[in-house]
DNA sequence: CTGCCCCTGTAA
DNA sequence: TTACAGGGGCAG
């Protein structure tokens, strides 16, 4: 599920339901989900605190708590975070936060790769400062992006995904951004011309904004689950199909151990 | 850079 | 049975 657009929409939908609520208790059903502290230490640290804000930084969800604490949640591959009534404990429920009035926040994660931690807000902030700029904020400028791109020999796709040059892009939206900018994902990023990098900069922002819109619509249908959003993919998952732009067969390769889809004809 | 690991579910 | 999965940390 989660790249920046999905995490953003998760936060937007959670925030109005839990901001201002007090955490009565945290129930950790799988100890490994909490790191680096212990399950008991985590429950102890968050219990009794009030949720002041819900926000996103990259693919992380931050719950700002009273008393100068913050919870950091990373959904990884299959995590989901949502407000609900006291939940049924299905096997994928890893952690849930008991609020007042029979309300709860549930962290469900079938693969159990997601991670939750708590810390002093200033320490959490320090960790987040190590991440690159938010792509839809004013901190992410074309000039900064160009400067970073010209200094890296990484393949263009891995450059987009490593969360230090820009945050929030994962396997799908990195591939889609490159497709829109017509850049070969294997090409060392510094070998792209400045105008190509400028196109990529625009593509990243366009792709993410479009995806947030799609995911927002998707999540609005109550009770309906869908594996993918209505975001129209140009290449992702389309090995062997025709490129929507030029009709050439879309290829699948492996980079950094993960699938990359691209059009070898129009991505140069 | 590649490979391994963390985990589980689902499809080929 | 194997491959693969919208992530990321780490060792070599």
Would you give an account of this structure?
With 268 residues, this protein is of the alpha+beta class. It contains seven helices and ten strands. The strands form three sheets. It has a four-stranded antiparallel beta sheet. It has a four-stranded antiparallel beta sheet with strand order 2-3-4-8. A hairpin with a 2-residue loop joins strand 2 and strand 3. Helix 1 crosses helix 7, helix 4 packs across helix 7 and helix 6 crosses helix 7. It is elongated, with a radius of gyration of 20 Å. The structure holds a DNA duplex (12 and 12 nucleotides).
Provide a quick synopsis of the model.
Helix content is 31%, strand content 22%.
Rg, please? Answer: 20 Å
Quantity of strands, as a count = 10
Determine the fraction of residues in helical runs and give it as a percent range: 25-40%
Distance between the termini: 29 Å
Order of helices and strands: HEHEEEEEEEHHHHHEE
Strand arrangement, major sheet: 1-6-7-5
Largest beta sheet, briefly? 4 strands, antiparallel
Distinct helical segment count: 7
Question: Which stretches of 5+ consecutive residues score pLDDT under 50?
Answer: 223-227
Strand content: 15-25%
Mean of all residue-level pLDDT scores? 95
SSE inventory with pairings:
Elements: H1 4-18, E1 25-28, H2 39-46, E2 51-57, E3 60-65, E4 69-74, E5 79-85, E6 93-98, E7 103-109, E8 115-120, H3 121-129, H4 142-149, H5 156-161, H6 171-181, H7 194-220, E9 251-255, E10 258-262
Helix pairs in contact: 1-7, 4-7, 6-7
The chain binds a DNA duplex (12 and 12 nucleotides) through helix 6.
